[in-house]
Amino acid sequence: MNEISLHNVVPNVFSQRHDLHSDIWGREVALRRGGIYLVEAASGTGKSSLCSFIIGQRRDYVGSISFDGRDVRTLSTTEWSTLRQRHLSILFQELRLFPELTAWENVQLKNQLTHFRPDAVVAQWFDVLGIADKRDSLVGMMSFGQQQRVAFVRALLQPFDFLLIDEPISHLDDDNAQRMSQLILDEARSRGAAVVATSIGKHLPLPYQQTFSL
Amino acid sequence: MTLIWKLLRRHVSLPQLGGFFLANLLGLCIVMTSVQAYHDILPAFSGEDGFLPNTYVILSKRVSATSALGGHTASFTEAEIADLARQPFARRVGRFTSSRYKVFASIAMGERSVGTDMFFESVPDDFVDADLAGWHFEAGATEIPIILPRSYLAIYNFGFAESQSLPKLSEGVVAMVRLDVTLRGRDMQQQLRGRVVGFSNRLNTILVPEDFMRWSNATLASGAEQGPTRLIVEVANPADDAIPAYVQAHGYETGGNDLDAGRATYMLKIASGVVVAVGLLISGLSFFVLMLSIYLLVEKNSAKLHNLLLIGYTPSRVSLPYQALTVGINLAVLVLAVVLLYVVRGRYMELLWQMFPQMSEGPTSPALAFGASLFVLVSAFNILAIRHKINVINRPQ
User: Fold this and answer.
1) A169: CB partners within 8 A, 6+ apart
2) Measured between CB atoms, does B315 come within 8 Å of chain A?
3) Which pLDDT band, with edges at 50, 70 and 90, does B49 fall under?
4) Quick one: which of B364, B291, B309 has its CA closest to A78?
5) Is A159 in contact with A86 (CB distance < 8 Å)?
6) Which of A90, A101, A113 sits opposite B6 (nearest CB)?
7) How many CB atoms are closer than 10 A to CB A21?
8) What is the 8-class DSSP label of residue A138?
9) B10 contact A CB<8A
10) Of B188, B203, B229, B321, which sits most exposed with the smallest number of CB within 10 A?
């Protein structure tokens, strides 16, 4: 997948508002493979909605979203599964981890599906992100910042053309944010992929090519 | 798979699944055992060693007061005979032909002579259950072969002869008796000799060869030929309940208890049908218990299922654990039901053998096929319903 384009997309909840000043809602927006984008937003401006629309989780918007010119509303269940396995990865703001599984099992759940990286590489990422000692801890027992890093590793364990990261460093210290940024850059570059990060203030330190204000 | 199962087995309710297991086992056992019992007991009504090996049914039209007074004919029309011959239960249909002239027969017994007016009937030769050597007649011959019902001899020996102090007659002696037969018709008279060549259990009439009947009716009969008033039908299976149904529907009558096997089969079918229906009802209800249990399980785990779908799992892959669970339970139920079927069957066959030692076991394939079909049907429905439920979860808001 080379391009995600938004054509006059407005969430249904905003459709009656005429004072919408946004670089994304109601505009023509194109996100291209290889680019690094930042979506800045205040709370309640629909940042997570944007991610949900792109990932196919929600459809409560007007306008259209296309992947390489194909309207996402026409994608079949199988096509969505393939997209989520091979082309589009997301770090959810709410993480969507499984608290009854350990950190390691949570990432294995994804790696068993994609067979993308050997265990040694995954262990190394755990190490870099400072959660190696939490490997066998239940995710439900971990802090939000630690859980964020587990979810991040899981998001990397698949091929992708676009990586959506929704408020990735809300609970991270600068040191960990720096390490996460480096990992994102390495992985995105090795795949020629685009990174779309959202933020409500604290940005992930990345060389953004374009910044949208939501 | 193991990680997914670890996630999705949460909220699996053992009491609910156990309840389904027992209820479904009960239902399937009842269904399979009744189908099996039906096939085991059915041969007792039919076949060579059945209660009623009679494969011939003699049909006549019911004579009622109105039909007798109204001059309605009791003979079968060609259309009725053709319709009967078309029925799946009928192998062959033969007609009784009656003599349409006067017959007087007498036996000389020393100085006394016993005589009576009587009649002859004939049926096609291949319906005759006696030795057919000498069972023919040619025009100009002076001797008529006759077959008598065996019951007549019994009536004479044990009824008439006993009370009249007459000698009892064996079949061999009767065959030597000289019968003087006088035929009268069209102002003609023919004097012939009758000889009893055999006795029949099947045909309750005074039987002569068809050759003779044709010749004598052609020579002596007056008036137009009428259709036969009695028919003899060879049936494929005397226990076929279609026979009494057909006879009843057309207002025909049969001799004796010719149709008892058919009626018994009909009762057996009704009884088995009711039991199968009860079994199916229990199976159906247990199926609903299972579906509700699984729906509840999916509902409780819907957030997890949704997350799995969002990280790239396909609906078919997340459906698989639940589908495998239900199919596994169904299969276990089927296997256990088959085992129980053989145990129960062993018991009731012992009882049946005490009463009918010669009885053979029926095939197990219908009951097994029935159970297997039910398994396939229920499992297929489970698989589709679970998949549907997961698809609902997967649907974007």
Assistant:
1) A148, A176, A177, A180, A202, A203, A204
2) yes
3) very low
4) B309
5) yes
6) A101
7) 8
8) B
9) yes
10) B188
Domain ranges of chain B: 2-48+263-394, 55-96+228-256, 98-222
Quick one: residue B312, left, alpha or beta (phi over 0 = left, psi -120 to 50 = alpha)?
A: left
B309 touches chain A (CB under 8 A): yes
Q: Quick one: pLDDT at residue B52?
A: 45
ipTM: 0.92
pLDDT one-digit tens code per residue, A13-52: 888 887 778 899 999 999 999 999 999 988 778 888 899 9
Q: Which residue of A lies nearest to B393 if distances are taken between CA atoms?
A: A57
SS3 annotation, B99-128 = CCCEEEEEEEECCEEEEEEECCEECCHHHC
List beta partners, residue A62: A10
Q: Is A211 helix (H, G, I), strand (E, B) or coil?
A: strand
Please list every residue in chain B whose beta carbon sits closer than 8 Å to the beta carbon of residue A58.
396-397
- Residue B258 pLDDT grade (very low, low, confident, very high; cuts 50, 70, 90): low
β-pair partners for A10 = A62
Measure CB to CB from residue A101 to each of B3, B310, B396 and give the nearest one: B3
Q: Report CA Rg, chain A.
A: 17
Determine the topology of domain B55-96+228-256 in CATH. Alpha-Beta Plaits (3.30.70)
| Inter-chain touch B313–A113, beta carbons under 8 Å | yes
Give the predicted TM-score (pTM) of the model. Answer: 0.68
- Are B391 and A85 in contact (CB < 8 Å)? no
CATH class of A3-213: alpha beta
Residue in A57, A77, A98 nearest the CB of B310: A57
Question: Which of B311, B317, B395 would you mutate first to test chain A, the one with the most A CBs within 10 A?
Answer: B311
| Chain A partners within 8 Å of B309 (Cβ) | 81
Read out DSSP for A62-114? EEEEEETTEEGGG--HHHHHHHHHHTEEEE-TT----TTSBHHHHHHHHHHHH
Residue B177 has pLDDT above 60, yes or no: yes
pLDDT tens string B67-83: 555 555 678 888 888 89
Interface contact flag, B312 A85, Cβ < 8 Å = yes
Higher pLDDT residue, B237 or A182?
A182
CA contacts within 13 A on the Cβ side of B49: 9
Residues of A in contact with B307 (CB under 8 A): 96, 98
**Length of chain A, please?**
214
Q: Give the three-class secondary structure for B94.
A: strand
Pairing mode, strands B102-109 and B112-118 = antiparallel
> Does residue B397 belong to the interface with chain A, where contact is any CB pair within 8 Å?
yes
pLDDT tens readout for residues B179-226: 888 888 888 888 888 888 888 877 888 889 988 888 888 888 877 777
**Which chain A residues are within 8 Å of B7, Cβ to Cβ?**
98, 100-101, 109
Of B4, B307, B391, Cβ closest to residue A77 = B391
> Which of A51, A74, A84, A147 is the best substitution to test chain B (most B C-beta atoms within 10 A)?
A84
Give the C-alpha separation, B33 to B253, whole Å. Answer: 36
A36-46 b/e with 16+ CB inside 10 Å = b? bbbbbbeeebb
CA distance B148 to B151: 8
Q: What residues of B are in contact with residue A84 (Cβ under 8 Å)?
A: 310-312
